[in-house]
Specification:
alpha+beta, Jelly Rolls, globular
């Protein structure tokens, strides 16, 4: 990639894959990786988003460690529906709290606390929270690995509603 194009690309601020820069020294890379933290303190990572859905990015390539898995927490407020979207990679959504359902390729699939919902790659889907409390889910996906292999198709079909929900205007996932 020409240097100027690379500089512009890096200015975007999103790191999907971490590059190895300098000499290709496996011994030094192993040493660096082994010195990284083995515990991720969720309490030290801010929630982002709102007013209906909130995200906490737990594991992503820009952290300098694991390059093959992306993990994040997501809160859906009661009555919330996510965007309609699809991506090539599979995703696993472990439900920590609350209940709801997905519509995957037109099929309704219900989930509740303790369930592991699987979203197959290439599936157009949408998430819905039906419980009286926010649904909190932990999502794992091999998105960075797929991006490395240039399997980058991801489609936003219909964006999520961004209007605040009456009665939940001051909600914070930290509460």
């Amino acid at each position: 990639m020409p240097e100027k194009v690379l500089e512009e690309w890096e200015k975007k601020g999103r790191t999907h894959l971490r590059g190895l820069i300098g000499d290709y020294d496996l011994k030094e890379e192993r040493k660096r990786l082994r010195e990284l933290p083995r515990i991720i303190k969720s309490s030290q990572i801010p929630w982002k988003g709102g007013p209906r859905m909130f995200n906490k990015m737990l594991l992503q390539p820009k952290g300098g460690g694991i390059q093959t898995v992306f993990a994040h927490l997501k809160d859906f407020l009661p009555g919330t529906e996510s965007q309609i979207h699809g991506h090539q990679n599979d995703a696993m959504m472990y439900v920590l709290q609350g209940a709801g359902y997905d519509v995957q390729d037109g099929e309704k699939i219900e989930w509740q606390s303790g369930d592991l919902a699987i979203i197959r790659g290439g599936t157009v889907h949408q998430h819905f929270c039906t419980s009286d409390v926010p649904a909190r889910v932990l999502i794992f996906k091999p998105k960075p690995l797929f991006m490395f292999a240039n399997l980058i198709y991801q489609e936003l079909v219909v964006p999520a509603n961004k209007d605040p929900l009456p009665g939940w205007e001051s909600y914070s996932p930290e509460d």
